[in-house]
Amino acid sequence: MSKELFEQFRRNLAVKNADAISKSYRQVTEKLNDKYYGYESSSKNCRQVGSYGRNTAVDGVSDLDMVFLLPWDVYYRFQKYENNKQSSLLGEVRAALKEKFPNRTVRAQQQVVSIDFSDYIVEVVPAFLNKDGSYTYPDANNGGAWRVCNPVAEIDEINELHKLKNHNLKRLCKMVRAWKNDHGVPMKGMLIDTLCYQFFNNTIKYDTKTYSSYGEMTKDFFAYIVSIDQEKEEWRAPGSGSIVTNSGNFHPKAKKALRRLQEALDNPESAHEKWSIVFGEHFPEYIDEEQRQAIAESKIKYFEEFAGKKFRLDIQYSLEVDCTVKNEGGRLRGLMARAGVYKIPVHRDLTFYVSKIDVPGDFKLYWKVRNNGKEAVSRDMIRGTIIRDSGARQITEKTSFEGEHFVECFAVKENVCVARGRIIVPIQ
Predict the structure, then answer these.
(1) In the chain, how many H helices and how many E strands?
(2) Which of 10, 15, 84, 83 lies closest to 53, judged by CA?
(3) Is residue 207 within 8 Å of 165, Cβ to Cβ?
């Protein structure tokens, strides 16, 4: 069963709007080639970089990076400017792209010019090609400076190891992204790819393995990252050696994933359930025949909304949810920690609230209450819609029947989910 599930999981993670993304890249490239080279081309001087260029992005990817190579005479022209040369260059590129996309939001910020295409944002890095293959690019921060990066070296290094590891490297990168997006883990894509690269670079165990070994492979990967010193704050990217920083503490959620992945191996009957919890909405659904029949006979339509379908996903910040349980003497997380195995009795009032969040600026909150299990089906009480927060940063519920239910909260900025938190609600 595991082979078929993980093979389908890989297909589910494939970027579904690749044609639209390619069209956007071509349009940007055509405009900038006309502006800076005076000829028409939808492919010259452009390089896809970032997770999409490394082919480690998953469906729902929100930020797409591209480098556009400018002639060096443009660099020398802006070097003559007295004030922030880099900001001026970004402003000129922005003006050209705004002319091409008058109805889109086009911004010049920090090191990029971004174009909002509604379903995703293309971030254009105007750059100059150096003799060693690296790029010189503008950084408008703190008065402006020229920086150097080498994303092509990163792509080449990852491609090479991917081939040597039976094409397992990029698949693992994508599966870890699914976990990160579903559990709201504040990890940058480059850090995920770097850790996956280091994992494979230090083992030969999976050099010839394929989908049937992915349950064990993912368990070993999470054991690897759990073993990393929690105080470690930076790594070196493969190929380029660029510094990759840690944007949050991934250890607590990685430990939970490791425990569930080990449970999946120890008890094959619960494997699908555990893998689904770890990897989230893109993991293939499995409903046994009894539950399928109950759904078919139900008076209501089986329906669930998923954050990855409702919003763009770009988890950057932390969000935690907790719950007060009336007449139980404490918060749900504390009760579960003290009791070891704790389940909430029925007929209890619950108040779910945001206990921790570090999202800056303005954002909107959304909630999702999910009822699971056969009793939820038999009572016609399957739930899973995503609703807007009232402004109180909390919702109230009442326990009604047994099941491993859960509640999620999403922080959304400009239709991008930048943080999410979940709490399991076990009812006896």
Answers:
(1) 15, 18
(2) 15
(3) yes
CATH architecture type of domain 14-149: 2-Layer Sandwich (3.30)
* Cα distances (angstroms) measured from residue 361 to each of 37, 282, 364: 40, 30, 10
**What CA–CA distance (Å, rounded) separates 309 from 317?**
20
| CA 24 – CA 256 distance, rounded (Å) | 39
Residue 135 CB: number of other CB atoms within 10 A? 20
Q: Where are the domains of the chain?
A: 14-149, 150-286, 299-427
pTM: 0.85
Write out pLDDT tens, residues 251-285. 999 999 999 999 999 999 889 989 998 998 899 97
Cα separations (Å) of 355 from 121, 248, 294, 324, 403? 31, 17, 37, 11, 24
What is the C-alpha to C-alpha distance for residues 47 and 14, in angstroms, rounded to an integer? Answer: 20
CA atoms of 382 and 55, how far apart (whole Å):
36
Superfamily designation of domain 299-427: Immunoglobulins (2.60.40.10)
Q: Would you list the DSSP string of 175-208?
A: HHHHHHHHHT----HHHHHHHHHHHHHT--TTSS
Most distant pair of Cα atoms in the chain: their distance = 75
